[in-house]
Amino acid sequence: MSLQPRLAFVQCLHPGGLHRLAYWEWGDPGCDDVVVCVHGLTRQGRDFDVLAQALQPQRRVVCPDLPGRGESDWLDNPALYQLPQYLADLVTLLARVHARRLAWVGTSLGGLIGMALAGLRHSPVQRLVLNDVGPALDPRGLLRIASYVGRNMHFASVEEAAASLRDISLGFGPHTDAQWLALTRPMLRPEGGGWRLHYDPALAQPLTAGAAQAVAAGELAMWQAYDQITAPTLLLRGEQSDILSAQTARAMTQRGPRARWVELPGVGHAPTLVQPDQVDIVRGFLLA
User: Fold this and answer.
1) Topology of the domain covering 6-142+211-287
2) Residue 141: helix, strand or coil by DSSP?
3) pLDDT tens-place string over residues 202-226
4) pLDDT tier at 252 (50, 70, 90 boundaries)?
5) How far is CA 48 from CA 14, 56, 207, 213, in A?
6) How many helices (H) and strands (E) does the chain have?
7) Domain coordinates of the chain in residue numbers?
8) How confident is the model at residue 153, as a pLDDT?
C-alpha cells in the first residue's frame, strides 16, 4: 500500500462564488467503503496520515483540508468560516467520493461537523468517531484556543516551528521528536526565506466575534443533532481535556446514540490518533 496520499480537489459553493476544497485520499480508489477524517480548527488533513495508513488495506480514507486550511482555497468573507459552510462543503465532497458505506472520524471541529451531519435525516454516516468533542464545549478550552488562533507567526526553520507548535499543543500528549516533526511539516508553508502556518489568519474572526454567545446558542442545537444520531458512535476523550468535560462525555453515553466512551490517560485536547494504542482503538471500532 502507498505511504503517500493522492491530492485531489472538488469545487464547492459559497455565497458569492466558488472555492476549491482539497482532500487527501488513501487506499484503493475503487473501494466504496470510505472513512472520512476531518481535522480540528487550525489543523489540516495530513494529521490523519498514520491512521489512514493503518486503515487503507480495508478502507478508502478521505482526509479533507477545510476551507482556509492546507491546500484548500481561503474564503474572501471570514464570516463564512463556520459550521454551515463546512457542512455544505463536506456534503459536496461526499457526493464526489461515492461511498456505499461511510464512516466519519472527527477531531474537535471535525467532530462537530460529524455530529451535525450524522444527526440529519437520511444521513449517510454509518459509524461515527468523535475525538474529544461533544455538543457542549468547555469555555476554558475555547479561551485557550482563541488566544493563539490567527497570530501572525513566522519561523526561521521547521525545527523552530515544531518547538513553537509543541508549546501551544501540550494537550496533544507525549510524542517522539519524529512524530512531532511529521505532524508539523504539513502545517507550514514557505514565506520570505522562512516558514508560516498554512491557514488563513482570518479564521480567528468568527471565533472572537461574540464567540461565547454563539457557543451558548449553538449548544442546544448540537444536543438536538446528537440526539438524532442512530449510527454506532465511539467517543474518545483526553483525560485532561479542557474542551470536553467528563460530565458532557457521561451524558453522551446516556442519550442519543449512547456513545461508547474511551478515556485516554496523559492526554488533553486533542488526541492526535498517532499513537499505536489510539490507532488500534479507532481501527477496531471502524472495522468491527
Assistant:
1) Rossmann fold (3.40.50)
2) helix
3) 998 887 655 555 666 789 999 999 9
4) very high
5) 26, 12, 24, 32
6) 10, 11
7) 6-142+211-287
8) 85
